[in-house]
């Protein structure tokens, strides 16, 4: 015949094996043998919580408090259940009760900080994480959590300090390594970021986001093959992760493997049909493959979902331009300029279309605005030179071609166009010299 403590022990053994149903049965037997057995109620609550039976778990923790009203751990566990139920306000109230009963309860501060953070209260969250560190200085998690707040506050050096302290406590804390990698990436220290993400991959090889993070850095530094490998691994680990297909598609597009890119964007759209960027990317892939109508359909779909998306308007302008729909293209670039008056590319593209449609003064104004916004934009000077030459302003055209060459010494087209302008003003020697230079640059490519 077993007494209640023996039954409880058997229940805990079942818990270790994750046989929660059997554990609950033992805990029920222990409670039946001793209806005031606080520890049995507590353990039963743990088992029910592990099964996701949250309301029943709360009832068990309530029973603990009925017989032990000052049991801080019961309030703490109730709070954790409310967190799992996404009831953060109630969770905060329960953590506060636990702290009132046990003022040095580091885990309660830490978890209350997490609840505050979920609600967007960064300041209270920071205070609680700092309290957690004071009362639990050998726990790495509060340092990791506070580091994230430093990132939110754009304090990367303070974030690094917290992650370093976390790793001094727990050298294999994969979240600390991952978050430290995020900060190093923000600081442009890509090699160090790669080392951190590699550590995460080694510590947690099933963490698809670690492969995503590392793949993104590889993309940034131009190592496309390694980026492809990491994005592909992320997809293997989580085939339903739409962002991974988008990122891999972007690398394929960069490598001019447009059909592969298109296939990835198709899958991304299937998985996340409300992601506007996926439609824009698919449209760009279609345009690269010569499917202008299909591309236009995608850009229009993106604008239907997000009418103020300037990237979609820019691409819509580009495809209308290729289709010869000049007025529609001009209208698209005008929409971009309305939304982003500093868009140099929109002014330049609209300038090209104004030139095609004979609206020369408007073209001049657009190129001049582009140069005002970006004095180092060599193409804007080149195109302005062409338009001024059309207007018969040959000396001004030469000045603009010269500026384009100054900014981009290998600009063969600028030399060729300056040669034409020199011819127009009768300077045959300079024209010949520019033509020779253009031929030399072209031959070297």
Write the layout of secondary structure elements.
Elements: H1 4-16, H2 20-33, H3 38-50, H4 54-67, H5 72-84, H6 88-101, H7 106-118, H8 122-135, H9 140-152, H10 156-169, H11 174-186, H12 190-203, H13 208-220, H14 224-237, H15 242-254, H16 258-271, H17 276-288, H18 292-305, H19 310-322, H20 326-339, H21 344-356, H22 360-373, H23 378-390, H24 394-407, H25 412-424, H26 428-444
Helix pairs in contact: 1-2, 1-3, 2-3, 3-4, 4-5, 5-6, 6-7, 7-8, 8-9, 9-10, 9-11, 10-11, 11-12, 12-13, 13-14, 14-15, 15-16, 16-17, 17-18, 17-19, 18-19, 19-20, 20-21, 21-22, 21-23, 22-23, 23-24, 23-25, 24-25, 25-26
Structural class of the helices, strands and pairings? Answer: mainly alpha
Question: Rg to the nearest angstrom?
Answer: 32 Å
Q: Tell me the number of strands.
A: 0
Query: Spans of 5+ residues with little confidence (pLDDT < 50)?
Result: none
Q: Give the assembly state of these chains.
A: single chain
Average the pLDDT over all residues and give the rounded result. 96
CATH topology of one domain: Serine Threonine Protein Phosphatase 5, Tetratricopeptide repeat
Number of helices in the DSSP assignment: 26
User: What is the H level of CATH, i.e. the homologous superfamily of one domain?
Assistant: Tetratricopeptide repeat domain
Portion of residues within helices: over 70%
CATH top level of one domain is: Mainly Alpha
Shape: elongated
What is the CATH architecture descriptor of one domain? Answer: Alpha Horseshoe
- Beta content comes to under 5%
Order of helices and strands: HHHHHHHHHHHHHHHHHHHHHHHHHH
């Amino acid at each position: 015949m077993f007494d209640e403590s023996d039954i409880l022990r058997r229940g805990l053994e079942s818990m270790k094996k994750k046989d929660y149903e059997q554990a609950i049965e033992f805990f029920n037997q222990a409670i039946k043998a001793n209806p005031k057995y606080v520890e049995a109620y507590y353990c039963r609550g743990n088992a029910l919580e592990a099964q996701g039976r949250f309301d029943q778990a709360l009832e068990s923790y309530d029973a603990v408090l009925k017989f032990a009203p000052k049991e801080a751990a019961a309030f703490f566990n109730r709070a954790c259940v409310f967190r799992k139920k996404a009831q953060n306000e109630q969770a905060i109230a329960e953590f506060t009760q636990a702290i009132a009963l046990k003022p040095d309860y580091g885990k309660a501060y830490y978890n209350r900080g997490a609840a505050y953070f979920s609600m967007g209260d960064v300041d209270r969250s920071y205070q609680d994480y700092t309290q957690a560190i004071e009362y639990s200085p050998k726990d790495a998690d509060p340092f990791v959590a506070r580091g994230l707040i430093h990132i939110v506050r754009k304090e990367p050096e303070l974030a690094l300090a917290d992650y370093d302290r976390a790793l001094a406590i727990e050298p294999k804390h994969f979240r600390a390594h991952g978050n430290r990698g995020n900060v190093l990436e923000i600081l442009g220290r890509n090699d160090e970021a790669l080392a951190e993400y590699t550590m995460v991959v080694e510590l947690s090889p099933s963490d698809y986001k670690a492969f995503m993070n590392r793949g993104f850095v590889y993309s940034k530094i131009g190592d496309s093959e390694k980026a492809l490998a990491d994005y592909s691994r992320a997809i293997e680990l989580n085939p339903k992760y739409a962002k991974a297909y988008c990122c891999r598609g972007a690398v394929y597009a960069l490598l001019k493997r447009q059909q592969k890119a298109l296939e990835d964007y198709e899958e991304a759209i299937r998985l996340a049909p409300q992601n506007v960027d996926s439609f824009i990317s698919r449209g760009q892939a279609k345009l690269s493959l010569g499917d202008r109508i299909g591309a236009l359909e995608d850009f229009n779909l993106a604008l239907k979902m997000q009418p103020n998306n300037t990237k979609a308007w820019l691409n819509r302008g580009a495809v209308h331009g290729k289709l010869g729909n000049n007025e529609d293209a001009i209208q698209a670039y005008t929409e971009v300029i309305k939304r982003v008056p500093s868009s140099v590319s929109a002014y330049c593209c609209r300038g090209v279309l104004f030139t095609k449609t004979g609206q020369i003064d408007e073209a001049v104004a657009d190129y001049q605005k582009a140069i005002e916004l970006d004095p180092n934009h060599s193409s804007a000077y080149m195109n302005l030179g062409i338009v001024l030459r059309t207007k018969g302003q040959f000396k001004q055209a030469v000045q603009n071609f010269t500026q384009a060459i100054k900014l981009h010494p290998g600009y063969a087209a600028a030399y060729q166009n300056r040669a034409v302008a020199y011819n127009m003003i009768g300077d045959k020697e300079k024209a010949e010299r520019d033509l020779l230079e253009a031929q030399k640059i072209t031959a070297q490519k």
